[in-house]
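Tokens for chain A. Residues wanted.
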């Protein structure tokens, strides 16, 4: 007989019917055991530190203490905790704070019960499971951060040159307006293209408008 490792789960959600529905399905799984349920954030923190479950399913909007604060408190006291957010919200003010607080995975309540069970197994094995919409938000934020990092590398003079480029001025016109040599303008333009990781002036101007530099 093969011994099956049970994944011990704590489920925190302030809606009793949600807990009953999800817990009933998880109870039918041979490798998952819902050892405790919490109806608010404070209770979730207390039970998490008392039972030290393998996985914590955490709702975000709850009375007394929300899921973000509960997640943060649990991770501060017990850094090894693996927390899966299960919520109805995809707002930026929910997604990013939850992940920054230490949540390992992020699922929506619209997910099927078997998908939540699979997320529990995957998270238990060390993976991070994110809804496609969440992944998209993260990638977008990373790109935005990268863009900010790129144009912050520009010197004040290079920003002036980029602004004039966006106005459609030629290198000679830029040189005349800034009272610098044409050769110097060409050096600035070359530096701008390199720092913004673009191929030509047109792409640099598009970048400038996209990132509201002009």
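Reply:
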């Amino acid at each position: 007989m093969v011994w099956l490792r049970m994944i011990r789960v704590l489920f925190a959600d302030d809606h009793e019917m949600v807990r009953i529905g999800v817990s009933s399905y998880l109870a039918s799984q041979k490798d998952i055991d819902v050892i405790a349920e919490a109806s608010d954030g404070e209770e979730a923190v207390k039970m998490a530190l008392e039972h030290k479950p393998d996985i914590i399913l955490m709702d975000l909007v709850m009375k007394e203490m929300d899921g973000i604060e509960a997640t943060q408190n649990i991770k501060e006291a017990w850094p090894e905790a693996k927390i899966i957010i299960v919520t109805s919200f995809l707002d930026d003010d929910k997604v990013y704070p939850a992940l920054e607080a230490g949540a390992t995975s992020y699922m929506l309540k619209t997910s099927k019960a078997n998908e939540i069970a699979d997320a529990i197994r995957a998270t238990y094995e060390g993976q991070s499971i994110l809804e496609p919409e969440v992944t998209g938000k993260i990638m977008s934020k990373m790109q935005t951060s990268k863009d900010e990092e790129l144009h912050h590398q520009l010197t004040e003079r290079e920003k002036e040159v980029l602004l004039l480029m966006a106005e459609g001025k030629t290198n000679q016109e830029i040189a005349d307006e800034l009272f610098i040599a044409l050769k110097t303008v060409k050096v600035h333009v070359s530096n701008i293209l390199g720092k913004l990781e673009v191929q030509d002036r047109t792409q640099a101007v598009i970048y400038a408008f996209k990132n509201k530099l002009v």
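The first helix runs from residue 16 to 27. The two ends are 70 Å apart (CA to CA).
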